[in-house]
């Protein structure tokens, strides 16, 4: 890839966060019955005029595909390589729809809802990314304080100093000093393994951990994306099974596995929609809400459209709840250790100062010497014949 192609790809990536606005502009083009060639040429000129270089690059790429004449009237073909892979299945629905303006507006709303969910997850991910290194540095600093006091303490005073909470703090400090780097590398390896497994791991073992903090967040987040995509497809004429099959073809291994299980359950019992979706794909909260909506909905497709449109705030609330639980689980242990070590650095110096008072120190020294003398004068234990 040469520099020019790399620059073009970077501009296309920069354009993608703005694509909901473009979908609305394209919907307006269909609504006004404007020729597509004129739309692209006019919007390129506007993008150049307003210095929107990313938008101009994306429009030029679409115009180039349109001018090839091959499938030029198909929206999905024009967007290939410009829009993210996740939009592909919804662009197929746009091409199938009779009312393309309505379909593109639905697509814009789905993209905005998905963008909001991604922003929530990204915002919550910042907290552990910042806190984990800070907690580790803080624990190391506090451990060094504890160990420096330990090194300054006479041997005959240590037994009195390192008792109770102070003793536990010394054990933590020694473990951090000896195994700190190894524990950090192990934690990093576990985090990387968990992240890699999120879209790939499937089977009975995955179902057992689906409610665990990080895996629960991934499930709720992917369910939210699924609702918005399903709402777009179903509201533009797709059938329930057809929409599930379209999404499954372009999904991760984990989502494809779940959707295959849903489709099999629907084949066995076409009316058992709640049971089909209750096999690990939805959280208990969203499953309960779906059951509530189904009591008054004509079809389960209407329930999914409702969850993916008017119920987006409720779905987003579930994602936030899962993200908060994941944050507490990931950061909570190190924050607890940091707090414990911080308390220890308040109690240890005070106890050390009290023990180092001349009178106290003299008494401990005398007691230590007396114990040593007694141990030397004690007769050796009788050995068995």
Give a structural overview:
The chain has 385 residues and is mostly helical. It has 18 helices and no strands. Helix 1 crosses helix 4 (53-67), helix 7 packs antiparallel against helix 9 and helix 12 (240-249) packs antiparallel against helix 13 (253-268). The protein is elongated.
Count of DSSP H/I helices: 18
Poorly predicted runs of 5 or more residues: none
SSE class: mainly alpha
How many strand units?
A: 0
Q: How is the main sheet built?
A: none
The amount of beta strand, in percent, is: under 5%
Note the run of SSEs as H and E.
Answer: HHHHHHHHHHHHHHHHHH
Using only C-alpha atoms, the radius of gyration works out to 32 Å
Gap from first CA to last CA = 87 Å
Q: Overall 3D geometry?
A: elongated
Average residue pLDDT: 90
* Helix residue percentage: over 70%
Topology:
Layout: H1 3-15, H2 19-32, H3 36-49, H4 53-67, H5 75-79, H6 88-96, H7 100-152, H8 155-161, H9 165-197, H10 204-209, H11 213-234, H12 240-249, H13 253-268, H14 273-277, H15 284-294, H16 300-308, H17 312-355, H18 358-377
Question: What keyword list fits this structure?
Answer:
385 residues, mainly alpha, 0% strand
